[in-house]
Structure formats: structure tokens, C-alpha cells
Predict the 3D structure of the following.
Amino acid sequence: MTQDTETLAQIADAVTSLCEAFSGSYWRELDQRRAYPTAFVKAMTEAGYLGALIPEAYGGSGLGLTVAARILETIHATGGNAAALHAQMYVMGTLLRHGSEAQKRKWLPEVASGKLRLQAFGVTEPGAGTETTAITTRAERRGETYVINGQKVWTSRAEHSDLMILLARTTPKEQCTRRSDGLSVFLVDMRKADGLSIRPIPTMINHATTEVYFDNVEVPAANLIGEEGRGFRYVLDGMNAERILIAAECIGDATWFVETARDYANDRVVFGCPIGANQGVQFPIARAYADAQAARLMVCHAAGLYDAGVSCGAEANMAKLLAADASWKAADMCLQTHGGFGFASDFDVERKFRETRLYQVAPISTNLILAHLGEHVLGLPKSY
Ligand SMILES: Cc1cc2nc3c(=O)[nH]c(=O)nc-3n(C[C@H](O)[C@H](O)[C@H](O)COP(=O)(O)OP(=O)(O)OC[C@H]3O[C@@H](n4cnc5c(N)ncnc54)[C@H](O)[C@@H]3O)c2cc1C
């Protein structure tokens, strides 16, 4: 569904108002304790924002990706971070697009109402990295149950989620014609998963990310999403939405960095004038602004195509690439503009600087996007 500019502005205003209760000091204190923003996630859930992409028939608001992108962009532009909750928006898409009617009726209304949290997405493994078809976590069918053994890494929010969308191998790779065959997607109810253990991974940002171990975890066969063996395609389908939403967060970050640098450059007086009067300070701010605006156009374009049901792999990838570059350059500019105070936690610049660096690596690294564009858009030889 497409949204008009006025509706989008109203949604952005409403999200901004909600975020006012969660200022820099809120995020800073959580960052120092590496604690989950429970109150913020609760407020966003109760306001209905996490159900934005769930159709009305399943209790959501069915608003489309353009709106979801604006919600996440706004959270980041106000200095917050949507990583604690954004997966609920795109992870749910796998269930929505490929789940059976019975599965959607069973799970989506409770996800939309906030009763159940669907925040965990278990794809990456220590031995496979970006090469998803090399994953070894195994799901073996035994009667009406699949038994799962293996390990995931970087499964964010697993400790704060009830459900996980899991990608596992159901047919050994050597028995498959193509290496992308034989992978399947499951909805794992982590509340009832004996043999599942979670170990937090300490990181340079407050991201609630973990390692998850599966030791004979039994999942009902009714929780297989779509057809057995087609899971890789289902996960790929969802990646355009994920890239566009993360790109929107980058645009929000870039906006925050530009506005924060502008305000500081106007206020900070050295050698008798505001530092922003020096072109060496002013021009990087102006350039960061222009870069972010250009990247934003690509994000909006990609989201519009997605909502119109048009294939948008190239645009989603370019949106993520350009937005992540814009936010990272803006972060560097903002820190430089602040001089020594950029390193002081109280200014929030160093926190946002660390946070926005992630998007050069996850959910997909810059090199892999360039490889996609080179190979699939420009027809250059495959490099791997
Ligand atoms: C904080 C955080 C949260 C995450 N959350 C999740 C999550 O919730 N669920 C989940 O499943 N995963 C998650 N991830 C994993 C994330 O998607 C991966 O880290 C990312 O896709 C990169 O994979 P990798 O770390 O294994 O890097 P690798 O695949 O090991 O690559 C390492 C480096 O080599 C480069 N490289 C590799 N192959 C090539 C090539 N052929 N050509 C050029 N360069 C190449 C990459 O660009 C990268 O810079 C998260 C990661 C982080 C850090």
C-alpha cells in the first residue's frame, strides 16, 4: 500500500512524540549496562507500531514498508535505536508470505497485539558466515516432529523473544542438486524448546546478540513454514524488506549526526567565532546532509517498489549500500565536528558512531552488496 506525504509526516510526528520519553540519557544508561530497552519496546508495541506490516485480517495495521521504514528512520533520527525491535517487522514477513493460513491465524494476531514477540532470526552460523548455504544446523524429521541439532551465532534478541524463525538443513548438502536446496524454515517456540540454550555475545554496541545452541530440540512438524527444502528462497525473499528497513535506520542516524553537528557548530565558539563559520567545519556537514538526502531518495524509491509488489532487489541493495555509507560518513563528520567532546559519552556521538558502524557489516556486508550489483545487475563474472 502506498502512503501519501501527509500521512507519513503524521506518523513521523507521532513516533517523535513517543520517542521524547526516551531521550539520550535513557539510551546512554542502557548502553553502559548493555541492557535491553524493555520500556521503549513496550511503548512501541502498545502504540501498535510493531504490527505495521501485519495485515488487518491478522490484527495488524497493514500499512506497508514505506510506513515501517519511516517509523524506524524516525526512531534513529531522534537519537534512539530500533535494533531491539526492528526484526519483528521483517522476520514476520517469512511467515506472512510462506506460512499456511492455519499458521498465520495461530501466530500473527498474538504477534500483532504484542502478546508474543517474534524478534529472533536464526540464520548465521560460525562456520558458514555469509555463505548461508553452508550452514550445518540439522533438522531431522521423526514422525510429527523435527529434531534440531546445531549452533547459530549472532542471533540477536533471542533472550527477549518468544519465537524464532530458524533456517536449518533438512537434506544433507551432498544429496542436493543445488546447494541452496535442502534448507527449511521453522517457527521455533522458544518457550517450549527443551535443549535450546542461549549465550550472550559481548559486543561494542548494545545489541542483545547471542549464540544459540540446539541440542535435540523438538519442533512440531506443524511449525515447518512452507515446503521442506525451499527455505533458502523464503529467507532470500525477506531480505529486500530487511535491507530497506535497515537503510531507513541509517538515514535516521545520518539525520541525527547532521543535526547534532549543525547545532554544535553553531554553538561552539573557538577563536572568537562559531566553529561552523569555518568552511573546513561547515562543508563536511553540508556534504553529509546532501549524501543523506540522496540516499534517502533511493530508500523511498525501493520501499515504494516493494509496496507496489515490483521486484526491487537491485534498489533494496543500493538503498542499503548508499544509506549505510551516508550514515557512516556522517558519523565520522559529527565526531570530528565535536573535537574532543565527540569522545565524551554524555554527548551521545560516540554511542551513535559505534552503533551506525554495524551497518557496513550486518545484516549484509558492503562487499556482498557490491558483488550482487556487479554480478546480477551489471553482468560481471561471479567472484565466489
Ligand atoms: C551485531 C550483529 C547482529 C547480527 N544479528 C543477526 C541476526 O539476528 N541473525 C542472523 O542470522 N545474523 C545476524 N548477524 C550476522 C550478520 O548478518 C553477519 O555478521 C554478516 O552477514 C556478515 O557475515 P560474517 O560475520 O560471517 O562475515 P564473513 O562472511 O565471515 O565475512 C567477513 C568479511 O569478508 C568479506 N567477504 C566474505 N566473502 C566475500 C567475497 N566473496 N567477496 C568479498 N568480500 C567477502 C565480508 O564482506 C566481510 O567483510 C548479526 C551480526 C552482528 C555483528
